[in-house]
Amino acid sequence: MSCRKNLGFATNLGFATNLGITINFGIAINFGIAINLGIAINLGVNVNLGILPNFGIATNLGIIINLGIIPNFGIVINFGIAINFGITANYGITINFDITANYGILPNFGIVINFGITINLGIAINLGVTVNLGIIPNFGIATNLGIIINLGIIPNFGIVINFGIAINFGITVNVGITVNVGITVNVGIIPNLGFTPNLGFTTNPGFTVNLGISPNFGIAINLGITVNVGILTNYGIIVNLGIIPNLGFTPNPGFTTNPTLALP
Known about the structure:
This protein has no helices and 40 strands. By secondary structure, it is mostly beta strands. The protein has a domain at 1-124.
């Protein structure tokens, strides 16, 4: 048994099938393929020029424009603007309060809450929890299996894999490979053009540039400027209050504190 109720404006110029519950209080225009086997509620503007299959609960109170494929098997709530030119697949919970634009592949198997701007032109896979209150532009491959909380800017042009907790209040730019298994907190600026694996605890209220290889297995606290062009490995504790330029190979098995300037 299906139920369709329209109290707004609904136009179908394509193919639309309802085997569930469809309620429209806004504007719904279909030029493509719309299939509903779940619950679809529209109180805003929903324009479909692609493929829109719903097997879960989809609620729109904002604007949805689809020119690609948006399959939903979970819960989707949109209060803002959602634009899809690629594949946006939801198997978990997706809540959008601001702007989400997808031009690539954007599957969600966990929880995604967006209060800011999310732009995907690559592949962004979420299997954990992602909360965005800032700007997340992805041009590469981003995979989250942990927790990401962003209140700043996180542009990715390379490969980012998060298994732990990543909190960003500043600017975190990745052009290389960033792997986080521990805890990363950024309040300053972190541009990575090399390889940065973190299996411990990293906090950066300052400025950290990695052009080489910088693995952290311990605790790294940067309150100043850290520039790595070579290999900077930490197994212990590094506290930087000044400037640390590394042009060669620097392993730290113990405790290192730098209040002024440390040369390689």
